Amino acid sequence: MLNFLQTGRQGFARRGQVQLRRSTVETPVFMPVGTIGAVKTIEPRDLERLDARIILGNTFHLMLRPGLEVVQHHGDLHQFMGWERSILTDSGGFQVFSLAKIRDIDDRGVEFRSPVDGAKIFLGPEESMHVQRVLDSDIAMAFDDCTPYPVSCQEAEKSMLRSMDWARRSKKAFQGSPSALFGIVQGGVYPQLRERSLAHLLEIGFDGYAIGGLSVGEPKDEMYEMLRFIVPKLPADRPRYLMGVGTPQDLVFGVACGVDMFDCVMPTRNARNGWLFTSAGTVKIRNAKYRTDTRALDENCACPCCARFSRAYLRHLYQINEPLYARLATLHNLEFYLGLMKRIRAAIENDTFHEICAEYEVVV
Amino acid sequence: MLNFLQTGRQGFARRGQVQLRRSTVETPVFMPVGTIGAVKTIEPRDLERLDARIILGNTFHLMLRPGLEVVQHHGDLHQFMGWERSILTDSGGFQVFSLAKIRDIDDRGVEFRSPVDGAKIFLGPEESMHVQRVLDSDIAMAFDDCTPYPVSCQEAEKSMLRSMDWARRSKKAFQGSPSALFGIVQGGVYPQLRERSLAHLLEIGFDGYAIGGLSVGEPKDEMYEMLRFIVPKLPADRPRYLMGVGTPQDLVFGVACGVDMFDCVMPTRNARNGWLFTSAGTVKIRNAKYRTDTRALDENCACPCCARFSRAYLRHLYQINEPLYARLATLHNLEFYLGLMKRIRAAIENDTFHEICAEYEVVV
Hints:
Two copies of one chain form a homodimer.
Chain A: E1 3-10, E2 13-19, E3 24-27, E4 29-31, H1 44-49, E5 54-57, H2 59-64, H3 68-74, H4 77-81, E6 86-89, H5 93-99, E7 101-106, E8 109-113, E9 120-123, H6 125-135, E10 139-141, H7 153-174, E11 180-185, H8 191-204, E12 208-211, H9 220-230, E13 240-242, H10 248-257, E14 261-263, H11 266-272, E15 275-278, E16 281-284, H12 311-319, H13 323-349, H14 353-359
Parallel strand pairs in A: 4-14, 5-6, 6-10, 10-11, 11-12, 12-13, 13-14
Antiparallel strand pairs in A: 1-2, 2-3, 7-8, 8-9, 15-16
Helix pairs in contact in A: 6-7, 7-8, 10-13, 11-13, 12-13, 13-14
């Protein structure tokens, strides 16, 4: 279950609140990714300080390690990882297709080998819903077939129809849960398929609607084209979630199309790889020009990293593989992403969102 | 310069204050090791929360990376690493002997190859003092020759005499510095050599006296024997520092002999390797018995790790190589070490230190 209040708008951009079991999420929102029970290098109290209200957990990873039994001993995923606010879990579908050695795939689901210990595992809509119910995430995602890119229209249709069948079974298997369930629009880069997918989902009925299968290798123009086309068609009274996207520009573009929710590993993964987001552009901290640069990473940022350390110090920590580097860099990049969303929310309230669009060269 | 106030005692155990340029250190004290400009995984604000007043920096590592020039751009090591309280730097001697490919060693000093880039580097007492002055540590250590173990009495004597010559030159090179300089008693496992070394140092005159060359492979009984013998002979009006030691029991033993200051990588390194100190004994977190253990690591501990996470969660993070594991484990082990020292200080004040000795089976 979930309550969505739209509290403001500017053009297609929406300002709202998603009321969940454990927290109220101000939208548009960016959800940090806590893949295997932790946002890498980050404590829950750091996320609280960042005013994050919802994070992501990955069903596929968590069912492999620590496994459901361990989580159940703690009650649920929240108690296991010491995070009392909301969690959205993906269905496991995406990771099965990208990370596991698939043994067999048919309309029932997917049989694969665990990349951890080689064990044979079966995951279909019923199994995915079971896992997500045990994790007790506040938003569960329907199990879907991952359409590759590039793919023919015929293949994309077949994959989409399978996802729609799985969406129906996901809904059925999730009945009685106090949490929310989102359906996922598929259909690759084919607008008619996307529309048909959405019609299927609306017929089934979900608490929110996600757009999946984008940012999977297609040119950015194609992704933007598809967002322009499909996002305004999603029901206005339900939250809209763009999965696995993206760069700061992508977030601004998505919001401009009417997206409410985003997740992406970009701020956290890029941080670890030395790619830092600042108000003055990207800083690749390994660059020799930062060797003696005593300035803060971002002089307009108040995060624990920028408040105390220089670019030269961060570069030093990066060079010596000091684990503190990844933590400071991640704290900063999350501050940047969550700060951008905060700016966007305020801008929609104040009818100044077009200024942020101009800043990021976003034209919808 | 340094002021030492002895504020209490029980037997040989001393309670005191070391007043340094940047902070007043309550003794007996354990100093966390911040090898290359960071206590691994830990932020300065974490150390402040732990009420750490002084940490260690390693001259050898810092001169290689980031190099003096980078530190100088920030002012000093404190400003570089964002730590305003005190820092003790070692002389680099120990690491030169244990980590570098030595090209040549004579009475002038040591020529070695940088393990980072193969560059030829010379380090003698004058060079070590120069580096420590640039780092502007609050306590510098005299440059010394590292006596191996086992070693003949003759070799140990030769090494000790070289260290004493280097101590004299260190004192001279350090003249005019506002910081404190400690001399290091050497002489291996030979009591007469240790006594002669101390006599040399006293003649030169230092702000504090350290015991070096222990915990280098000798049986623990021999180390304890030597501490019983030499610590009470160190001047009572100066701080006494036992270098690179040790286990919680070693700390209690050292204090019982009259030691004021300790450092060791044990709490931080062991944390990363899954070895956790608790009030109920050691926890090796990788052990399968912790897989579903929902209890806090140490139910008598209020650290950020024990306040929020279970043993099973820590074990999970350890198993998946999540960097957050090392941070939480290090926070806990430092809490344990610094908490033990706090207990020891209170016990000496209350004449109950013998109870801690009994708890750790320490007999001096």
